[in-house]
Amino acid sequence: MEYIEIFLVIFSLLFLFCYFFHKKDGLPTNWPVIGMLPAVSKNYHRIHDYAVEVLEKSQLTFLGKGPWFTNMKFLFTVDPANVHHILSKNFGNYPRGSKFKEISEFLIEKVWEKIESRLIPFLDHASEQQFEIDLQDLFERFSFDTISTVVMDYDPESLSIDLPNLPFLKAVRDFEEVIVYRHAVPTCVWKFQRWLDIGQEKKHREAWKIIDDFIYGCISKKREEMSKNSKSKACKVGNEVGADLMTIYMDEVRKSAEIGSNGEKFLRDTILAFFFAGRGTVGVGLVWFFYLLSENPHVLSKIKEELDAMTTQMQYHHTDDDIMWNRYKILSTNFQDLKDKLIYLHATICEALRLYPPVAFNTKVPIEPDTLPSGHKVDSSMQIIFSTYAMGRMKSLWGEDCCEFKPERWMLETDKIRYVPSHKFLAFSSGPRTCLGKNMSLTVMKAATIAIISRYHIEPVQAHPVVPETSMVLHMKQGFKVKVAAY
């Protein structure tokens, strides 16, 4: 009887303890010793939607705390004033990564080259054979081949009929997954896993080796090529000769005494930054874009109407009567002149990026202590995390219809686009800005969209689940299975 009484006393104390410490407002409870780790662990599989819920209930900014002994602090925010403060007003205190050089004409040329030689042949084959394809995998391969060619003058030919297995693509996905994991657990936990070489940290080490082997291998081949040809090519600007970005950066490394012995690592990091930005932004952005079109056929119809109107206009001005111009040929041939005139298509892509930003989180750490407009004090021990996914879905920012797919919200008039400042719409700015400039990402997406919509009908496989993956890049967890039919 004595043991039962002791048990009841302990149970009652624990019950009261949990009752008083547990938050009733739906926000994560900051438990003694373990902090908010239970809430994060419980919702880790749905971390993007969970961030929306927490930020909606906490007036756009939420201070998270890990276990006491880890001194783990992070500030989640989608407050436009905070974003503006960090990205603009006090920009110098929050360093960012490398700036990407825009090479517009060269990139467009390579994009259409890959569309003609890889994307269309594969979709034609899928249409003829009537087999299911994973549109996410297709766009990832398309982006990978395009970025590899532009950055390194190397075509891995990942988008081919037989869809070869490429360890590099899986390694990049694993790397992105580990980054999110490291943000969700105390530093001492993942560092201990790294010391033991187990779990996510073993995956991280294996991914890094594959990534390094691939990129350093490409660097080595490029050096051999350059040593054989003393006249290295230059970046294509206007009518000048074109070349890859690796050649340009190698020339910079050769000229810069500051980089010195770190030249190889500098090249590796620069090239990897292009891969993460380009492959993720364009490929992931495209797959969510086509998913939204499949769910909203009226939007797809409006895009086709705009393309048809532009085709008719261009056909009227074309004087070569010996050529039979179809919609695809007219739009692809005149893409450079048309890409900024496709107003509704532009608005639709912006709206898709709002709802499904390719980069789901953006992290900053201040150099010096600072006070944000929201009143939160931050220092170098705190990670500030912009939830780009949450920012695009906040009722307080976008209204009650914030989760609806409405391209019209971006349009002031039929011939104008409403450009929202980046400090209000981080979900849009943080994705496209990172891939050869914001406009370049939109350009690639427009080109691929025109090529597909003009030639094919995309039909999603019924009952296939479409949910975001727990990753820094907003992949679909199980891909996007579709069937393709050529017109």
Automatic annotation (TrEMBL):
Stretches that traverse the bilayer: 6-22, 271-293
Sequence similarity: Belongs to the cytochrome P450 family.
Keyword Iron listed: yes
Organism whose genome encodes this protein: Carnegiea gigantea
UniProt xrefs under InterPro entries: Cyt_P450, Cyt_P450_CS, Cyt_P450_E_grp-I, Cyt_P450_sf
Name listed for the protein in its UniProt record: Cytochrome P450
PANTHER family: CYTOCHROME P450
Alphabetically ordered keywords of this record: Heme, Iron, Membrane, Metal-binding, Monooxygenase, Oxidoreductase, Transmembrane, Transmembrane helix
Residues involved in heme binding: 435
Cofactor(s), by name: heme
